[in-house]
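Quick question, first post here. What does this chain look like in 3D?
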Amino acid sequence: MNSESAAERIDTTKPHPARRYDYWLGGKDNFPADRESADAVAEAFPTVRLAAVENRNFLRRVTRYLAAEAGIRQFLDIGAGLPTAGNVHEIAQGIAPESRIVYVDNDPIVLVHARTLLNSAPEGRTAYLDADLNDPERILNHPDLLATLDMKEPVALMLVAVMHFFTDDRQPYDLVRALCDALPPGSHLVMSHATNDHLDPEDLAATTEANKRSGVPFQLRSSAEFTKFFSGYELVPPGITAVMEWRPDEYRAQPRAEAVSMLGGVAQIS
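> Answer (accepted):
Ran it through. Tokens below.
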């Protein structure tokens, strides 16, 4: 891993989803362009920070479920973003130290910080791929992935807060299907996605315009459109829900669905 070359590739003049998400979560690895883009979104969707936090909580609960209840020991986390407390490998290996995790992202600043993602338990293994979801074949055939994961054994494919950056012209359903088709039976698909379910036409127009101003391609999808990603797979109860309603922690009060506007779901691939 060449962090120096990664640092040279960082373009601080253009917003990037990973850095913008880091800003919403209160991180420090973001730049003025990222903050300006994030604030443009927040003008139309003031509770976007809450949505980012609840999405991260969903990721942690799903990882706990997969490791503790579903017996999954391999995780492919695409669009991993910048490291924060409670990364997938920390949760999974805390339950099953032999768990193996491959992180994928295409932001060079994430690559610079990837050493945090590679702090594996000695019984397991982690790897980080500097790769783009637009090229699923490169991800699936990457030697570091093949050296870390046994593709004959079940894998949890995690696309958390990723696919809303893929507008329909970029064939998002085909991309997800290509990844899932490469996984063996017993694997799981994990996704969360921003939704327009709670927006009236006026609010939807304002949000769409704000996303255009943000400089980051973005597409909200309805519950029906989101459910289409899971077509042919067996949804894990409670099915498609608001992210904070997917097997929630009982001790926490839950925010209103419209304040978060994020859908989540987990399905087993047979």
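The domain at 48-196+222-269 is CATH 3.40.50.150 (Rossmann fold).
The chain has a mean pLDDT of 89.
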